[in-house]
Amino acid sequence: MSGAFRIPGAGRLSQPKTARFSFDGQSYPGIEGDTLASALLANGVHLVGRSFKYHRPRGFLSAGAEEPNALVEIRRDAARRTPNVRATVQELYDGLAAQSQNRWPSLSFDVGAVNDIASPLFSAGFYYKTFMWPKAAWKNLYEPKIRAAAGLGVAPDQPDPDHYSARFAHCDVLVLGGGAAGIAAALAAAETGARVILADEQAEFGGSLRFESGASIDGEDGFGWAQAATARLKDMDNVRVLSRTTAFGYYAQNFVGLVERVSDHLQNPGRDLPRERLWQVRAKRVVLATGAIERHMVFADNDRPGIMLASAARTYLNHYGVAVGRNVGVYTANDSAYAAAIDLKKAGVNVAAIVDLRDNPTGPVIDEARALGIEINFGRAVIRAGGKLRVSSMTVQPKNGGGERTIPVDAILMSAGWTPSVHLFSQSRGKVAFNDETKRFVPGIYAQDCVSVGACNGTDGLSATIDEAYAAGAKAAKDAGAKAAKGTKPKVDASESWSRGMLGAAPGAGPDTTVKAFVDFQNDVTAKDIRQAVHEGMRSIEHVKRFTTNGMATDQGKTSNMHGLAIAAETLGKPIPQVGLTTFRAPYTPVTFGSIVGHARGPLFDPTRKTAIHPWAEAQGAVFEDVGQWKRAWYFPKGGEDIHAAVDRECVAVRKTAGLFDASTLGKIEVVGPDAAKFMELLYTNPWEKLEPGRCRYGIMLREDGFIYDDGVVGRLAPDRFHVTTTTGGAPRVMNHMEDYLQTEFPHLDVWLTSTTEQWAVIAVQGPKSRDIIAPLVEGIDMSDEALPHMSVREGKICGVPTRLFRMSFSGERGFEVNVPADYGQAVWEALWAEGQKHGAVAYGTEAMHVLRAEKGYIIVGQDTDGTVTPNDAGLDWAVGKKKTDFVGIRGMARPDLVAKGRKQLVGLKTRDPKVVLEEGAQIVADPKQAIPMTMIGHVTSSYWSENCGRSIALALVAGGRDRMGETLYVPMPNGTIEVEVTGMVFFDEKGERLNG
Amino acid sequence: MAKAATRKTAAATPSAERRAALAGQELSATGVKLAVLPPAERISLRAPEASLAALSKALGVTLPRKPKTSASKAGRTALWLGPDEWLVIDEAGKDPLADCAEVTALHSAVGISHRNIAISVTGPAAAAAVNSGCPQDLALEVFPVGAASRTILGKVEIVLLRTAEDAFRVECWRSFSDYVFTFLSEAAGDAAA
Fold it and tell me: Domain B40-113: what homologous superfamily?
């Protein structure tokens, strides 16, 4: 048996397969097809949670996505712990383990419930009023204690082992909501051949047909029709039907985000299955068929477990075959609760009384309820509910006052009417309009190509809904370019119809300020709080909302917004539209981080870029460092060397014999066209027109403001062709910078840019033996100093493959950079390595490269410059064409503050104690004895131990640095002040003789 | 030194082995097959309208002028990437760079054979696999056989070419190929859904 409250013969879980599950450690039987909520109710369990602020016992309010109370933790294993799962939408599987939240030590005895007694302290605006002072309390009390106490659920503390998938999709018509309206619209659109996507958050389509026992379409009962129609849609090639899929966000230009829950309902989801799949859909037309949500009645203690929406009780009965009580009361201002009472009565549940706030309503449901012998009380209110962990009674009073009567009940079904679900419409930036007659906000002005149909559009009655939806579906398809439909509209044989309801507080909701008549269950906001907000000066609903937090919980006020608004309007004495409705924001229901992240985790979090030579370096045991997305060989430790020993060895070897370095990550741009030189003149500070083909030049690129943006060696291959190199990290932005100027400022130039960064693998061979290593492998290039001087480039072959061979140096030694097509990179490297072994050459990494260039005073853009350094500041005036009249940055460079005296200039620093290596970023002062805060005159930009110099070396930006040569400055550090001498930037081979050495 | 520098050793020069990224990698999932395609000759071609006739003649394929299209002939495909930009891929082992070198009309041709690698995505769920990270509409009537686009896959740029109703060629830069192949592999596992 699957629970004492399961009614044999009722519901649709026709071939019951038992699924055992546990809640707070207690094992229960359920049926496959149950939700956790229906299964618990079948076992008579109503108490499932504690409220957010007052820790009040809570049960199930709803049977759907709007649930504010029944939030539980679902635990598959230690890593798969999902907090705040709405039990009303969690499908049951065998072995499901759920736990209640926000209680200690137990659900039925929760210490935090003291807050309920102390509630006068926690009234509206509590946080704003309390968290003002003292400042220290933020650290000691507010953040650690009050925030922790206020949280709902506990976030998992282990990496999520599930995976999440994603899909982009396009369609002509996207139908959101799979009730009668959505299905009818999808049918009409699909019959035209248009591409249609139909999505619904439930496992099964049908919407309110799940509980409406009185609907019949095309000769079938409503729910049966929905299943048949959906099956027909699924069979159509032009239709995609997505169940368990929530449209959570409606963005610009009909871009809709949906989350499909793929495996949360499965007992053993295969490893191949994602947990969720994110759909990002671009639709030509959107049909919103999002239905309506029933509102509760606002009266004292209306949150006791066992008090729920009438439609929820009806869903549990008609779909799941579960009675929510044995002796239920009904409190309503609306016809729809009568239908619930009738269905329950017919199923054998005692209906103690219907209490109807209306004076003399008439209609078929009222007649039927009366005919079944149910006691009906018109013009009366339930002013209070009895019981604590479960409702035990309802106290009834004429709505204008008078004698009280308490009726014992074990459940109360309530309905204050239905609120159209305009969330997605509102997210689409559409403006809602208030219908004064029906007292509801319905879609007014549309901002996007969408249409609302059925209950979310304020359309009452099944016939009218299907008429409207079918026509809208056909029109949407036609507007999206489809041909006319040739299908047949579903025919409604019988339907239910509900009249209006009420908004705001019922008589049992105060004005007594000790009464807790809940408006927003999830955030514990009562009618009194809303009134108080108005009394304290809030006028706009936006302010009332933020002051009280009404509608700000994860349920987004699905049941509370309209009541809150009505109470505020009543207190203000203004009509509802003048107080306004808050804007709905995404997500409609909570969305997991996993679904947003999708594939972008682990190796796919960000691309890891590796050079063609990477496998060789890896095999040699290189240690890698991240440079942007690139992995670069940092150093090559041998025989247990640490980084210092390895780098010292590599640096010495390069200057003694030679070293091989993988420079493939350098950005490369080929600049081609008859105006290539003109373009280069405009983009770089240097002159290019007269650079001969076959020669290279070190170029500096500025931003418009005159500061250094990038640098690199540029080779001219032909009059109309330059091979430009950029820094590794700067490659993409330099390309964008150049392309931007070419397209916007210099479109008259006949020149084109192509990124060739990845076309070429680059092997730097540096050191006195570099030519000896390369020459045996080269064909067609004269490598003599006369034919191939420093700063020149030749095209030829190496190891039988094409090469662009640069003679250049970033170490100060005789040096070459061998460019070969990337796929040949490793083989050429291996050949050079074999040659190098004959001479004792080493492989060196980025750290040695940095040290070697610093020994020569060569700057690294982004390390020795920071976006505020001019060529002059960096001592690179020589690289600025004196006769040039224009280039990007020429005017910026002439600004008064950029030529003023005292600017920070790049200089060398030598520590008095040669063994002390400064810290990069350390601040520099002129007077170490001054009071703190000291006047900082600069900072260290590069600092290394130089084995070649036998001492530490450093580069620094120092105010007026070049005028301070020989001066002693100070670097205050936590362990004492370090004395330094200002020097030139070149620490090794000052005359530069080794370039040809 | 001078002696070493001028020494010609062409006879002894070994020919370097070509090692393409991800060479030969394949993956098979329900409805989707991935395969890293063999190396091809490629150029990035930039040219104004006036040069297109001469370039088309030299290349042996008419450069397409319509956005998101390509033209193909004798193993050579020209993909429209922009108003003055084409990616020319030659799978027949002929070098389009050499063909363009003889054209005097204004243009820029840059060899990028090694810059890109290509992955084929084939099978009934191929479009779904690509759509896992690519926001383009890949319906056959919108993105027909021969359609081409420079677009994105996840976090990287790709060039996408539909080679058959259920087949795509994904071109990406060499160092992004690992990411692209891994992304498509993960996507392929969910593409049949």
Answer: Heterotetrameric sarcosine oxidase (3.30.70.1520)
How far CA B176 is from CA of A540, A665, B41, in Å, comes to 52, 13, 19
Burial of B24 (0-12, 13-18, 19+ CB in 10 A): exposed
Is residue A881 packed enough to be buried (19+ CB in 10 Å), middle (13-18) or exposed (0-12)? Answer: middle
Task: Pick out chain A residues at pLDDT < 70.
Answer: 1, 15, 120-123, 126-133, 138, 142-151, 499
Which ipTM was obtained for this model?
A: 0.94
CATH of A164-292+420-494, one of 3.30.420.40, 2.30.110.10, 3.50.50.60, 3.30.750.24: 3.50.50.60
Q: What is the pLDDT of residues B165-180, one digit of tens each?
A: 999 999 999 999 999 9
User: Facing residues of A29 across strands?
Assistant: A20
Indicate left, alpha or beta for A515 from its phi (over 0: left) and psi (-120 to 50: alpha). Answer: beta
Residue A634, classed as helix, strand or coil, is strand
Q: Does domain A854-865+896-996 have CATH number 2.40.30.110?
A: yes
Interchain contact A800–B (C-beta under 8 A) = yes
Cβ-Cβ contacts under 8 Å, A820 against chain B:
16
Shortest Cα–Cα distance, A755 to chain B (Å):
9
Q: Cβ of B94 under 8 Å from any chain A Cβ?
A: no
Give the angle A587-A590-A596 at the CA atoms, nearest 5°: 75
Element (H, E) at A655: helix A643-656
One-character DSSP codes across A822-887: GGGHHHHHHHHHHHHHTTT-EE--HHHHHHHHHHTT---TTTT--SS--TTTTT-GGGS-TT----
Span B32-90, pLDDT tens digits: 999 999 999 999 999 999 999 999 999 999 999 999 999 999 999 999 999 999 999 99
What is the CATH code of the structural domain delimited by A299-415?
Answer: 3.50.50.60
pLDDT at A269: 87
Q: Give the tokens for residue A85.
A: 């799962």
The token pair that represents A54 in the structure block: 């007052």
The pLDDT, as a whole number, for residue A119 is 72
Owner of token pair 């006369």:
A786
Please report residues of A whose CB lies closer than 8 A to that of B1.
Answer: 771-772, 785
Can you read off the two tokens belonging to residue A681? Answer: 């003149």
pLDDT in tens, B134-176: 999 999 999 999 999 999 999 999 999 999 999 999 999 999 9
B72 touching chain A per CB within 8 A: no
B19 Rama sector, left if φ>0, alpha if ψ -120 to 50, beta otherwise: beta
